[in-house]
Write a structure and sequence with these properties.
The strands form five sheets. Strands 3-2-1-16-15-14-13-12 form an eight-stranded antiparallel beta sheet, sandwiched between helices. It has a two-stranded antiparallel ribbon with strand order 4-9. It has a two-stranded antiparallel sheet with strand order 5-6. The protein is globular, with a radius of gyration of 23 Å. A hairpin with a 4-residue loop joins strand 2 and strand 3. It is an alpha+beta fold. Helix 3 packs antiparallel against helix 13 and helix 4 packs across helix 9. Helices cover 33% and strands 16% of the residues. It has a domain of 185 residues: DD-peptidase/beta-lactamase superfamily (Beta-lactamase, 3-Layer(aba) Sandwich), CATH 3.40.710.10. It has 13 helices and 16 strands.
Length: 434
C-alpha cells in the first residue's frame, strides 16, 4: 500500500506542476535515447577487451605524431556497441577534446542515406529504379557523351537513356566534371562535390547538368560523380518535398537520428569538428574558412538552399550507426520496419555486369560497395559486407556475416597520409575471438 500511496502522491504533484511533469518527460526520453548506445561487455559480443585496447594505442599514436587531429570510432556487434571512443581534439587550436557526440561533415556517406530514400519511394510504388531519369527530370531525355580522341574529344549522343538504377550504381556516366569536356563543366560552374555555399536549389543545378557532356555512355563503366545528387533531386520531384524535409521525416526521425542535417543548427555549432589539411613534411594545418572542398565549408553560415544528396550531410558516429543498424537488421530498427528485408537484400548485392570494370573482389550495389570475393579483396571481412566513405576521411562498413558494424569519423582533407582505414579494419577483426 505504501508503494501505491507514493505513486498517487507523485502524480498528484505532477498534475499541480506541469513544468515539473514536462521536465521529467524530457529527461526520461533523453535517457532512453542515450541507452540505445550503452556500451556492452565486449567479451559477451565475441571480442577480446585486451585486443580492442590496441585501437586506443594506435589512434592515440596518430594524434601524438600530428597525423590526425582526433576522431570517433564506434564498433558494434549483434545490435550492441562493443567500443565507442573519441580520441584527440575536436579543435587543435583551442585544445577542445573530441567528444563522442562530435559533429562531422560526412560528405559521400550521404549517398547511402539518399539511396535508401529512393528505395523507400519504390516500395510505395511512386517510382521504379528501372525508370528513365527523364521521367522525373525531362531535361535528361537526350544526353551527350564526350569521347577522347586525337583532337581532344568528340561529342556523340548517349546510346541509351540514363536510368535511376544507373545512378544508384554510379554507371550513369556522370562524373564530377573532371572528364574530357572539363572546360564546359567549369564554364557552367559545376565542378566537384561541394555544394554548401550555393544559392541555387539542387534541382536547378541538376537540370543544368543535363546539358553538359557526360564522361561515359550509361551502363558501360563506373564513373563517380553527381549521380546521387541527381537522385536527391528525383526525391524532391517525386515526394514534393525538399530533400532535407524528406530525409528528416522519412529516415532521421524514425531512426532517432537527432544530430544529422545538411547545415548545423546554431545551438550545435560547438560540437562541429574542425577540418585540417595535411602538410608536406608532416603535421596538420587548420583548413581555411569559407567555401570549397579543402576548407571548413559553409555548413554553419551557408545559404541553406542547396541540399546535396551526394555529399551534403553532417552527422555523428552514433547517428550513422543507427542508420547502419537498420540496414544490418534488414530494414528494421527498434521494432520499426523502415525498409523491407528484400529491399535491403537488393541494395547490398553486386549490380555491376561483367563488362563493367571495378576493383578486384568488389562490386557495387544500390548505394554501397560490396565484397564479392574475399581472396581477391585481400583483407579482413566477409563476402556480402558493404561499405563506403567520405571526402573528409571518414569511413564505415557493415559485415552481416559477423553481425558487425564499424563507423570511423575524422576531419582531414585531402585524405591523410596515414593508413588508418586499413589499420582500423585489421585491429577490429583481430579483436574478434569467437
Amino acid at each position: 500500500m505504501k508503494t501505491l500511496d507514493f505513486f498517487s502522491d507523485l502524480f498528484s504533484d505532477l498534475r499541480s506542476c506541469p513544468l515539473l511533469f514536462l521536465t521529467i518527460c524530457i529527461v526520461s526520453l533523453s535517457g532512453l535515447h542515450a541507452q540505445d548506445l550503452k556500451t556492452a561487455d565486449p567479451q559477451a559480443l565475441g571480442f577480446s577487451a585486451e585486443r580492442l585496447e590496441r585501437l586506443d594505442r594506435a589512434f592515440d599514436q596518430y594524434v601524438a605524431a600530428g597525423e590526425l587531429p582526433g576522431g570517433v570510432i564506434l564498433v558494434a556487434r549483434r545490435d550492441q556497441v562493443a567500443y565507442h571512443r573519441a580520441f584527440g581534439q575536436r579543435d587543435l587550436e583551442s585544445g577542445a577534446p573530441m567528444p563522442e557526440n562530435a559533429l562531422f561533415r560526412i560528405a559521400s556517406q550521404t549517398k547511402a542515406i539518399v539511396s535508401v530514400g529512393i528505395l523507400l519511394l519504390q516500395e510505395e510504388g511512386r517510382l521504379l529504379i528501372q525508370d528513365p531519369l527523364s521521367k522525373y527530370i525531362p531535361e535528361f531525355a537526350e544526353t551527350i557523351v564526350a569521347i577522347n580522341d586525337d583532337d581532344g574529344y568528340r561529342e556523340e549522343p548517349a546510346r541509351r537513356p540514363i536510368t535511376l538504377r544507373d545512378l544508384l550504381t554510379h554507371t550513369s556516366g556522370i562524373g564530377y566534371g573532371w572528364g574530357p569536356a572539363q572546360e564546359k563543366w567549369e564554364e557552367a560552374g559545376i565542378m566537384g562535390w561541394y555544394f554548401a555555399d550555393r544559392e541555387e536549389p539542387i534541382l536547378e543545378t541538376v537540370r543544368r547538368i543535363a546539358s553538359l557532356p557526360m564522361s561515359a555512355h550509361p551502363g558501360e563503366k563506373t564513373v563517380y560523380g553527381y549521380s546521387t545528387d541527381i537522385l536527391g533531386a528525383v526525391i524532391e520531384v517525386v515526394s514534393g518535398q525538399s530533400l532535407d524535409v524528406f530525409l528528416r521525416e522519412r529516415v532521421f526521425e524514425p531512426l532517432g537520428m537527432e544530430d544529422t542535417f545538411f547545415y548545423v543548427p546554431p545551438d550545435k555549432v560547438g560540437r562541429l569538428a574542425t577540418v585540417y589539411n595535411p602538410q608536406e613534411g608532416g603535421g596538420l594545418k587548420r583548413a581555411p574558412d569559407g567555401a570549397g572542398m579543402n576548407t571548413q565549408g559553409n555548413y554553419v553560415k551557408g545559404p541553406r538552399k542547396s541540399f546535396s544528396g551526394g555529399a551534403g550531410l553532417v552527422s555523428t558516429a552514433a547517428d550513422y550507426y543507427r542508420f547502419l543498424q537498420m540496414m544490418e537488421n534488414r530494414g528494421s530498427y527498434n521494432g520499426k520496419q523502415l525498409l523491407s528485408p528484400r529491399t535491403v537484400d537488393l541494395m547490398t548485392v553486386n549490380h555491376l555486369g561483367e563488362n563493367v570494370a571495378y576493383s578486384a573482389g568488389r562490386g557495387f550495389g544500390l548505394g554501397f560497395e560490396v565484397v564479392t570475393d574475399m581472396g581477391r579483396h585481400g583483407t579482413y571481412g566477409s563476402e556480402g559486407s558493404y561499405r563506403w566513405g567520405g571526402a573528409y576521411h571518414s569511413t564505415y562498413w557493415v559485415d552481416p556475416a559477423e553481425e558487425l558494424i564499424v563507423v570511423y569519423f575524422t576531419q582531414v582533407r585531402p585524405n591523410a597520409r596515414v593508413p588508418d582505414h586499413a589499420l582500423l579494419r585489421n585491429l577490429v577483426y583481430q579483436a574478434l575471438v569467437d
